[in-house]
Amino acid sequence: MNREHGQPHGGHGDRLDSLDRDLAALPLAELAPARASQALAAAQQALLQRPPTPAWLLWYERRVEPALLVAACVLFLAWSTAAATPPPSGGHVGQEKPSAQAKSAHPCRGWADCATPNAARS
Amino acid sequence: MTPRHPSQDDAATDAQLVQRLRAGDVRAMATVWQRYHRRVYTFLLRLSRQPEQSQDLLQETFVRLGQHGRELAADVPILPWLFAVARNLYRSEQRRQVGWLRRLPILRDVLDTPPATPYTWFAVGEEQRRLEAALLDLPELYREALLLVTMEQLAPESAAQVLGISHVALRKRVSRAKVLLRAALGVDSPGEP
Predict the structure, then answer these.
(1) Contact (Cβ atoms closer than 8 angstroms) between residue A43 and residue B66
(2) Residue A64 has pLDDT above 70, yes or no
């Protein structure tokens, strides 16, 4: 992007003529130095006021792939649904039933058998 | 804060400056300012015809650059970006002021009257004064297109983007602006006898 005079604009169909040259030759305005310093200081201050993004936030600020975000949501939903589903047959959630093997390995058939002194001795 | 002025930064490309603005480098801001503030100021001045307002809008434009510097896309063309922000700020300001002032009937006629005095602060010589005055009398719609394309020599695609119009619409506006300008100056169009 330059401001060289006499550069035609390709593709326009506009012809470079004296009017173009005269317009491009019009001088730029000057800003008073004090006003310029004030404006630049304000702009630099604005740049400084916004703290840099912490590294741990970059993944968020740099826009995570939407597909990745959707996949994460789906996985979370699947996990939470599975965790909330009750066990297939009776009992409270989270209560484990003893397996058949564990049952056969135990000498007692019920709490009452093991509670009697004879059973404990045998 | 004391603004720091660029030294070795003068050779930096716009893309490098954008990269450094994204990192929050205030020296890059100084370089961008040094490189472009006069062009943006002149654009605003010719658009608004108000020196005070142009200075305020210029500052606000660069403050916006500071506020959004870290979020700029890496490939953003910085000068068209500045022109677009400056123009949007000018439009907003104009709507705000005029909307409020137009409620006062006594001011309606004043506001509808174009400025009688030609704003020729920086023109040199009689020819340039005439051209400047004719330019400033153009309807804003055409003036801004001419300013960006013929005077600032933005690529047509960039200028169209700044103005939020199509490439074809831009070409028509520039063409119409030149016709109006030539008529105001009493100059024949090129190719005419």
Answers:
(1) yes
(2) no
The letter for the amino acid at B12 is: A
> Which of A7, A18, A22, A47 is the best mutation test for B, with the most CBs of B within 10 A?
A47
**B61-64 CB contacts, 8 Å cutoff, 24+ apart:** B61/B85, B61/B86, B61/B89, B62/A39, B62/A40, B62/A42, B62/A43, B62/A46, B62/B29, B62/B32, B62/B33, B62/B37, B63/A42, B63/A43, B63/A46, B64/A46, B64/B89
DSSP class of residue A6 equals T
Residues in chain B within 8 Å Cβ distance of A47 = 21, 24, 26, 29, 65-67, 69-70
Please give the structure tokens belonging to residue A85: 């589903």
- Window B:110-129, CB contacts with A under 8 Å: 121-124, 127-128
pLDDT at A51: 60
Residue B55 to residue A39, Cβ atoms within 8 A: yes
CA B97 to chain centre: 19
Q: Are A29 and B45 in contact (CB under 8 A)?
A: yes
Return the residue of A nearest to B143 by Cα.
Answer: A23
Q: Is B148 on the interface with A (CB under 8 A)?
A: no
B76 chain-A contacts, CB cut-off 8 A: none
What are the pLDDT tens digits along chain B (193 aa)? 334 444 556 778 999 999 999 999 999 999 999 999 999 999 999 998 888 889 999 999 999 999 999 889 988 999 999 999 999 999 998 888 766 655 555 555 554 544 434 455 565 678 888 888 889 889 999 999 999 998 898 999 999 999 999 999 999 999 999 999 999 988 766 654 4
Question: Angle formed by the axes of helices B78-101 and B51-68, to 10°?
Answer: 130
- Treating both helix axes as pointing N-terminal to C-terminal, what angle do B14-22 and B78-101 enclose, rounded to 10 degrees? 70
Q: What is the pLDDT of residue A89?
A: 57
pLDDT of residue B103: 59
Q: Chains A, B: CB contacts under 8 A, how many?
A: 148
